Amino acid sequence: MQNAALAALGLGEEWSYEAIDVAPEDFEARVRAMAGEGFAGANVTVPHKEAALALADVSSEVAREIGATNTLVFADGRVDAHNTDAGGLIATLPGSPRARRALVLGAGGAARAAIWALSASGTVVDVSGVDVWNRTRARADAVYAELGRYVELGGAPVESLRQDSYGIIVNTTAVGLHGEDPFAHLPLDRSGFDAEQVVVDMVYGDAPSPLLAAAESAGATTVDGLEILVQQGALSLRIWTGREAPLDVMRTAAYSLGNS
To answer: Which helix (H) or strand (E) holds 100?
Structure first.
C-alpha cells in the first residue's frame, strides 16, 4: 500500500517501505538504530505502540494524550512520535444515526486511539459516552482512568453490557485475526445488532469478518480494518513526505492484498 503510494507520487526511486519483525526486548535498540540506517520513519504495530511512545524524544499532543504511537519520524538525531490511528478511525466513521453510547472492545494501543477519537470534541459521530470492555478488567480500568485526564469520557469500564444500547461498537482486539469465533470471546451476541448501529472491526482479511457479517445482516453500518489501515497510512505518509497521499491508489493496493 505504501509502496504503491510512493510510486504514484514519483518517490519510488528514493523511498521504499518494508516490514521489520522485532521482539519486544529488542525494540528500543532496533528503533534507535534505524535513523542511522537511512530510515525516515516507521509505523509501529502490536505490541509496540506504547513502548514506542515511551522511547520517543518528542511526541505530538495527540500521541501523549492517547498514550500510544503508531508513527515515528527520525530527524536530526531525534525520534518523534505521532498517532494517526485516531485520525484514521475518525475518517472512516459516518455520522451516528442517533446519539447513543459507544463501546470500545480492548485496552491496547488501538483501543486507546479509539477511545480518544470517540471522546474528542469535533468528532463526526454523536455519542453520549464511551464504555470500555477488556478481557482483563484491570487493564480496562487503567486505560479508562488514564485517558479520563484528557477527554470527557462520559462512560465506564464494563463487565456486562447491553449490546443494543450502543450506537457505535469498535472491536480493537485481535479476536478473529486467526479465525477465532468473535462471539465466543467477546461480550457480543451474533443476533444482537440493529440497523441503527455503526460496527467497526479492526480485524481484516479476504472477506468481511464474522463480526461484521453478523452486523451487516442486521442492517448495521460497518467499517472494516482495511479502510482504517488505508486512512491511518495516508496520514502517516503525509507526515513522512509532506505530500498528500493518493487514497485511491492506497485503497486499491490494500484491498488487493486483503483479497489475495
So the answer is: strand 100-105
Task: Specify whether 49 is catalytic.
Answer: yes
Domain ranges of the chain: 2-84+227-258, 87-224
234's CB contacts (< 8 A; 6+ apart) are 5, 88, 245, 247, 250
- The pLDDT assigned to 206 comes to 76
Catalytic residue among 49, 82, 101, 251: 49
Low-confidence ranges of the chain (pLDDT < 70): 95-99, 120-126, 258-260
Handedness of CA 178, 181, 186, 189 (dihedral sign): positive
**Continuous segment of H or E residues that includes residue 139:** helix 137-147
CA distances in angstroms from 111 to 17, 49, 103, listed in the order given: 25, 11, 10
Q: What is the pLDDT of residues 136-159, one digit of tens each?
A: 999 999 998 888 887 777 788 888
Residue range 87-224 in CATH 3.40.50.720? yes
**Residue found by looking up cell 510510486 in the block:** 7
